[in-house]
């Protein structure tokens, strides 16, 4: 659905969070790695579909199937997802998809979506990083509940801000292709150097490899 080359000229929506048991969750939409490029409802016979903003399409097609084109930064591929906006799953608010989205430039998303990740390197025994279950060389920090980390120093500043306080991080495991939430407490009392007790790599040599499966 949709012309992928023309989609690149549009604003995309970065999937920041996916709520459990939501329509988006059941459609296997992934936080951080997925970008919604365009959406079209399924047309009835003879119905002409006008281009509309994503929010309008979702609101106008409650309990009706909508086709969404998604670009995966993890696999560097497009895929089509069928989803039914619904309120039935949700007892908290009026979210129809269960998504938290952030508008972003499509060309920038394609060229640098995986740039801002922090690769966990060596993990020292007895450190906060080890206690939190971080896996050396197999884990990448990709964000936190407060949102997306945009620059290299954002992560280090975040750690400093949470000295002696619980810090929740979203961590991607390349070995198991899973995203999990990790809670650690940065501190200087654990008996070694640094607040985390692990090496952290950033930049071209430490990006998440593109998955081929």
UniProtKB/TrEMBL annotation:
**Keyword field:** Golgi apparatus, Membrane, Metal-binding, Repeat, Zinc
* Main localization of the protein described in the UniProt heading: Golgi
Q: Which residues form the PDZ GRASP-type domain?
A: 11-106, 116-205
Any one biological process term the GO annotation gives: Golgi organization
What range does the record give for the signal peptide? none
Gene Ontology molecular functions: metal ion binding
Q: Which Pfam families match?
A: GRASP55_65
- What PROSITE patterns does the record tag this protein with? PDZ_GRASP (PS51865)
Q: Give me the Gene Ontology terms describing cellular component.
A: Golgi membrane
Task: Specify which residues bind Zn(2+) according to the UniProt entry for this protein.
Answer: 14, 104
Instruction: Give the matching InterPro entries.
Output: GRASP55_65, GRASP_PDZ, PDZ_sf
Please give the name of this protein. PDZ GRASP-type domain-containing protein
Task: Please spell out the taxonomic lineage of the organism that makes this protein.
Answer: Eukaryota, Fungi, Dikarya, Basidiomycota, Wallemiomycotina
